[in-house]
Inverse folding.
């Protein structure tokens, strides 16, 4: 029953996306949905008592953002990117700024991608001390304090580096993931599990879906011209 | 008729023939001598190398030219040059005309110039005459004056003409240049582009016949002809002469001359790293050979480290040594290799080459890059080789085995019997070696004898054992809690808990967790009470033990003792023990007695003893015979000499002085050492020996790798050392570091701490503890491990005050209350404490002793600004740091050290550096950077102290130095009454308010 519903929702989404994006000529588009198969594990509630400022931003209990599920077990915080098949060339960094918010002592988005050379703006609207500790290995590791008076910090990464953790040493529960990419073909799913990668040149690609706990899944796809194709991924609970 | 010639007594014709023949033979011999002298083995190598070099250069040349072509830049330029040339051709007529014109002007100029010079000469002479005549007031002077004026006019006229034509000439020249400028610039650009290519081409011209002119080809060939080759041949012996490193040639010291590079031609050239031998590049140019390395070829030569005969110029005379049986066979075939007994120090086989390092580095304990040697030295330390064999380096080290003077309180006789019989059957990785059940004492008779020997030893040990008051546990222990305590307190920095052997090879790192015994099956061995007493104060049972005191509470000690004693899984105690056999015992007793008495007397003396006396008598003799006292304190053996061979200069021992018995191995010392370590008794094979004459070195069951590492270390123990100029400089700093490293090794500091970027072996167990007892997922636990591990001691000398460090090492205090691991109390002597402190200061190039007379007084404005910076409105320092007895909120993994310690503990200069950029001092620290180094000038708040970041840092530092740990609530700096400001500051005050601490983090010392 559930399955049927899923299929229905996916095809509906695909139809919709086909309609919506058929006009984008010259380049292909990949869309899809990521789902979670099985029973969602129970997560321990995050106790934010340590910093009353954090508490004030939340009314209900707060849970880790590790597994965010939408209706029909769609999965958020999955990072989709082209693993291989892209021509080696310098893609210009977009002018748009990637915003990483720390509102309510949580990283928003929890998983985020930025391009080499793209500006990443880190916000601290909480009025409490945060520190952004990037545990990067290729890029210079940094650990910047963001006291109350510093509500905004910008960073530009100069080397491509796939997925390194971000943490806040003041609020140990805070954890995020950042990926510095050398191409613009990536996306992060929201709770609805949907993603879209646009303007892809014709070719055969390996598309990878990455999740911080559940690992990666790879799927191969060939696109030509301005067609739109669909890939779906399903993660399941690790057998432990 | 010749024979009838009476004037000659010999046949001249025959003589002529003999002469002819002799001279022919002489000629042939001469040619042969020449040829033989000329055809040297190394010339062949040099010829091959030249071919190889030419080939490589050609490849490089092609690569470079292809690169130039493929990049298009070169072609583009080439095209441009052609165009420019074409363009220049169009201007040819113009240029020609210009050139003609300038030639004309040039000739004009020359004429004018000549005339000018002539006139000037005339002018000068006229001037002389005029001056002369006017001085004499002669009448001629008027005429001269007229002439002079006339000449002067002419001169100025001519000089105008000269300058004029010169200007014209320059003008024309620049016109020509302008027309050619484009071409010239392009040609210059081409030259820069092809610079590399030109270098290769030049090189090819030197080594490749094909690339030479005919004349050069001929010259190149003739250079190497016999006789002519004394001038400047291509093929010649290459050598380094080292005046300050001597070779000992039969009572004479001669400078070392290394000719190895005659054949090893590519040794310093990275291009030859895959070339066949002897041309291959040295595998580590960063450390050796290269001029920029620590050991340049010109200063150290080759045989200084490798051994061998540096003057040798062929394979055999250079004393190469094969590194394996297979290589030996190959060499025998190829070079007719054979062992040459006439040179005492042949080359080290490849696997033992690190033995050469120790000649100059014998003071150091960890030699970076010489991992095998390090491992060997470490194994010698752990196995305690130095206790039976004197090794100068280890003369002050304590005995490696436990104290046996009170053992009846700890273990039973039965257990002891089994243990001595086969220690590995109880603890698979024990360092206690096996004396019995070895290849020279497993025949049926020896086995029976061994049983009685062990009985005698056990009887002696227990008869001599003093009593020891076991403490009774005041509380009941909880094994579960004990297990967690073992996992969390830090026991696992020195101990393992490994019930079964693993396949992991021993390494420098893994040995750190073998500092103490593997904690298995202790319930089989001893009692809860003994464990409790031991844990409470290890030095009470064994005054020299390396086990530190963990300052355990009664409950903690009871929990751990209970946990450790629970494990009594082995059937060790259930084995039956053979009975005492008096007949065999008699034999043993008599054997010892006959060493000093006649057989008759010995028999009668033995008959007078009762069984117990015999056991004691034999026990004492056997303990002396096997040298048990070398590793253990045993009553009655206080000042005994070690029983083994002195190993201080073992590397110098000639192979002839070693007994190879009938063992079919190569007769070299390295082969002997290796064999001895693998099976210490093997050289008894085939010999008929009395029991007391048999080899008695016990078996440590070393693996091949371990035996090889120890052999490397043994080979390195040599007397001869190069001149001190070649050693690592004996500066006070280096000496302090060496001394400190020895202490660090002895007390196993790196089991817990990262020091000089090595160590912290406990960390894996901290991760396990986080997973198992704190319920953290694996990756989270990994990320948190640093926060819960003993601190990284990088930069400790720079960071903490000497006095504080001294006190801390003597009596550790709590710095990080959230840590479960606990810095134990060591019984350091004052000398050891000073050694450690000097070491940390030397590492960071800090002055020792530290003194600071600066004044940290603050003005009221500064004070209030610093207070604000400190507060949650700005930096929020107290969000993580403990302030006096005020704990920060949240979970302990985000906490940071107490500011109240800062004044006593931290060096004020360090606090400044730390606040500037903590990541610089301790990469990966949790302490965030407040002053972004990339935008330092705008990183601090603008509204405090004029937005001057340096002032803010200084004020914050001075403020931290005022924080005290004495008063309670008012410790929160915000609450400090304003009046206190003037006093709060400085150093000189020992008052209540004069303690403080700045932010520091996961780094230095531990809890």
């Amino acid at each position: 029953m559930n399955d049927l519903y899923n299929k229905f929702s996916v095809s509906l989404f695909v139809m919709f996306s086909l309609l919506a994006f058929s006009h984008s000529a010259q380049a292909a588009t990949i869309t899809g949905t990521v789902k979670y198969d099985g029973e969602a594990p129970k997560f321990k509630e995050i106790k934010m008592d340590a910093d009353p400022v954090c508490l004030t931003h939340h009314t209900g209990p707060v849970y880790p953002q590790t597994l965010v599920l939408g209706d029909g077990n769609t999965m958020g915080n999955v990072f989709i990117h082209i693993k291989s098949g892209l021509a080696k060339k310098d893609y210009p960094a977009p002018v748009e700024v990637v915003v990483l918010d720390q509102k309510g002592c949580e990283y928003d988005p929890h998983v985020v991608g930025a391009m080499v050379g793209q500006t990443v703006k880190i916000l601290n609207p909480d009025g409490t001390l945060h520190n952004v500790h990037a545990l990067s290995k290729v890029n210079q590791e940094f650990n910047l304090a963001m006291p109350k008076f510093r509500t905004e910090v910008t960073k530009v990464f100069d080397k491509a580096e796939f997925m390194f953790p971000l943490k806040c040493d003041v609020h140990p529960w805070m954890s995020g993931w950042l990926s510095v990419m050398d191409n613009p073909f990536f996306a992060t799913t929201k709770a609805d599990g949907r993603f879209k990668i646009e303007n892809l040149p014709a070719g055969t690609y390996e598309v990878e879906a990455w999740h911080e706990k559940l690992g990666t899944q790879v799927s191969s796809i060939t696109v030509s011209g301005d067609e739109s194709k669909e890939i779906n991924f399903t993660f399941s609970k690790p057998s432990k | 008729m010749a024979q009838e010639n009476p004037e000659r007594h010999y046949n001249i014709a025959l003589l002529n023939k003999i002469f002819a023949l002799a001279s022919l033979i002489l000629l042939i011999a001469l040619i042969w001598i020449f040829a033989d002298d000329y055809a040297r083995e190394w010339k062949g190598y040099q010829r091959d190398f030249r071919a190889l070099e030419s080939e490589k250069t050609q490849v490089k040349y092609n690569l470079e030219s292809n690169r130039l072509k493929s990049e298009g830049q070169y072609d583009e330029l080439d095209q441009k040059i052609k165009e420019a040339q074409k363009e220049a051709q169009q201007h040819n007529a113009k240029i020609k005309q210009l050139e003609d014109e300038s030639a004309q002007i040039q000739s004009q100029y020359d004429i004018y110039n000549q005339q000018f010079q002539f006139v000037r000469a005339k002018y000068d002479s006229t001037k002389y005459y005029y001056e002369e005549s006017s001085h004499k007031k002669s009448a001629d002077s008027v005429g001269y004056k007229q002439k002079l004026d006339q000449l002067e006019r002419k001169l100025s006229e001519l000089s105008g003409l000269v300058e004029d034509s010169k200007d014209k000439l320059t003008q024309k020249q620049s016109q020509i240049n302008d027309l050619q400028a484009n071409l010239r610039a392009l040609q210059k650009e081409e030259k820069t582009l092809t610079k590399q290519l030109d270098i290769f081409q030049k090189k090819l011209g030197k080594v490749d016949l094909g690339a030479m002119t005919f004349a050069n080809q001929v010259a190149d060939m003739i250079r190497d002809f016999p006789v002519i080759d004394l001038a400047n041949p291509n093929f010649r012996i290459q050598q380094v002469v080292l005046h300050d490193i001597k070779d000992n040639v039969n009572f004479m010291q001669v400078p070392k001359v290394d000719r190895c590079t005659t054949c090893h031609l590519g040794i310093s050239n990275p291009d030859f790293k895959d070339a066949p031998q002897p041309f291959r590049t040295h595998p580590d140019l960063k450390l050796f050979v290269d001029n920029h390395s620590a050991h340049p070829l010109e200063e150290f030569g080759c045989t200084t480290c490798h051994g061998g005969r540096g003057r040798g110029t062929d394979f055999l005379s250079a004393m190469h040594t094969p590194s394996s049986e297979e290589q030996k066979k190959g060499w025998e075939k190829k070079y007719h290799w054979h062992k040459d007994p006439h040179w005492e120090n042949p080359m080290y086989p490849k696997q033992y080459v690190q033995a050469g390092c120790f000649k100059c580095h014998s003071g150091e304990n960890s030699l970076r890059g010489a991992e095998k040697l390090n491992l060997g030295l470490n194994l010698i330390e752990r196995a305690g080789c130095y206790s039976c064999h004197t090794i100068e380096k280890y003369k002050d080290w304590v005995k490696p085995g436990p104290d046996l003077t009170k053992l009846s309180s700890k273990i039973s006789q039965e257990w002891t019997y089994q243990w001595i019989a086969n220690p590995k059957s109880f603890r698979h990785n024990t360092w206690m070696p096996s004396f019995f059940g070895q290849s020279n004492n497993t025949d049926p008779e020896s086995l029976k004898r061994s049983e009685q020997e062990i009985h005698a030893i056990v009887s002696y040990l227990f008869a001599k054992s003093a009593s020891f008051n076991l403490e009774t546990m005041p509380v009941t222990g909880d094994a579960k809690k004990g297990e967690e305590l073992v996992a969390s307190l830090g026991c696992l920095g020195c101990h393992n808990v490994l019930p079964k052997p693993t396949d992991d090879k021993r390494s420098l790192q893994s040995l750190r967790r073998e500092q103490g015994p593997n904690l298995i099956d202790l319930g089989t061995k001893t009692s809860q009470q003994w464990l409790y007493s031991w844990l409470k104060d290890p030095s009470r049972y064994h005054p020299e033990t390396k086990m530190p005191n963990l300052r355990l509470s009664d409950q903690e000690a009871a929990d751990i003792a209970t946990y450790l004693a629970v494990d009594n899984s082995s059937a060790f105690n259930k084995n039956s023990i053979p009975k005492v056999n008096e007949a065999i015992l008699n034999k043993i007793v008599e054997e010892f007695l006959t060493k000093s008495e006649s057989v008759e007397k010995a028999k009668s003396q033995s008959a007078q003893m009762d069984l117990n006396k015999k056991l004691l008598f034999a026990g004492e003799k056997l303990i002396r015979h096997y040298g048990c006292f070398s590793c253990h304190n045993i009553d009655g053996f206080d000042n005994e000499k070690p029983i083994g061979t002195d190993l201080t200069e073992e590397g110098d021992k000639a192979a002839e002085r070693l007994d190879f018995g009938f063992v079919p191995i190569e007769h070299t010392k390295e082969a002997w050492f290796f064999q001895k370590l693998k099976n210490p008794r093997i050289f008894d094979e085939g010999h008929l020996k009395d029991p007391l004459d048999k080899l008695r070195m016990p078996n440590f069951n070393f693996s091949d790798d371990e035996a090889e590492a120890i052999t490397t270390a043994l080979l390195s123990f040599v007397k001869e050392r190069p001149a001190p100029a070649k050693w690592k400089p004996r500066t006070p700093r280096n000496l302090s570091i060496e001394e400190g490293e020895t202490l660090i090794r002895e007390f196993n500091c790196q089991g817990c701490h990262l020091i000089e970027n090595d160590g912290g072996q406990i960390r894996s167990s901290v991760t396990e503890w986080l997973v198992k007892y704190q319920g953290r997922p694996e990756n989270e636990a990994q990320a948190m491990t640093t926060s819960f591990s003993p601190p990284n001691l990088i930069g400790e000398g720079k960071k903490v005050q000497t006095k504080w460090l001294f006190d801390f090492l003597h009596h550790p205090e709590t710095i990080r209350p959230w840590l479960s691991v606990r810095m134990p109390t060591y019984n350091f002597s004052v000398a050891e404490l000073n050694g450690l402190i000097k070491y940390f200061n030397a590492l960071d190039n800090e002055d020792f002793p530290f003194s600071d007379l600066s004044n940290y007084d603050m003005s009221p404005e500064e004070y209030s600004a610093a207070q604000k910076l400190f507060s949650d409105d700005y930096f929020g320092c107290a969000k993580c740091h403990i302030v006096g007895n005020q704990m920060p909120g949240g979970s302990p993994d985000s906490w940071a050290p107490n500011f109240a310690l800062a004044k006593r503990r931290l060096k004020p200069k360090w606090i400044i550096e730390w606040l500037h950029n903590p990541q610089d001092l301790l990469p990966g620290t949790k302490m965030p950077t407040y002053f972004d180094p990339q935008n330092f000038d705008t990183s601090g708040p603008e509204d405090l102290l004029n937005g001057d970041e340096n002032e803010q840092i200084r004020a914050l530092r001075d403020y931290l130095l005022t924080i005290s740990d004495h008063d309670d609530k008012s410790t929160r700096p915000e609450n400090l009454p304003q009046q206190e400001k003037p006093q709060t500051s400085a150093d000189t005050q020992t008052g209540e308010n004069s303690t403080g601490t700045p932010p520091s983090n996961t780094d230095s010392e531990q809890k």
Notes: Chain B touches chain A through 27 residues (CB under 8 Å). Confidence is low (pLDDT under 50) at residues 967-1007 of chain B.
